[in-house]
Amino acid sequence: MSLRRRTLIAAMPALALATPLHRAFAADPRLSPRLIGNPKAPVRVGEWFSLTCTHCAHFEMTVFPEVKEKLIDTGKIAYVYHDFPLDQIALLAAMLARSLPEDRYEPFVNSLLSSQDRWAFAPDINPKDQLQRMAALAGLSADQFHKIDQDDTLRQALVNQQDDDQAKYNIGGTPYFRFNNNPYTEELETFEAFNEQVQKAGS
Question: SUPFAM superfamilies under this entry (predicted)?
């Protein structure tokens, strides 16, 4: 099931139509940027992704390992994750990831994307139950999981941020990339294609 050009959280009317919550979320560390690599690198790459997007999972498994090895770990780029959940399960997964200590965010996201076919789309499974099991492996207790699941303030904050990003960048699907200020909306199937955009942004 491809989610790349799926309508953006059309299945979230309860949040969209609810009484608006205050947007004063700046003090919440869970909403701070999730960045890996050199924050002073000349090229900053932003990825907007959904944890139930199959194209995002494909990129994570086939291209990102080389990006991390050759560009992130060497300090050539700063890589910033932007949550852009396409459904309620992806939104809960993003909430869980952001509730972990910052140094566990990227490994947890990597784990969810690389095993997406087993927890999100496998037949005869409950994705929420699978998320709870994976969250437990990441260090979240059952009580913490349920507290996060019931945290409508965090849920609304992530939806608000997604709405702001959509209005600003007109994101048509995931994954969506920006290399410095240069948008890239096509699929990046190889490290070479990714690195070409890095070189263009840094020139």
Answer: Thioredoxin-like (SSF52833)
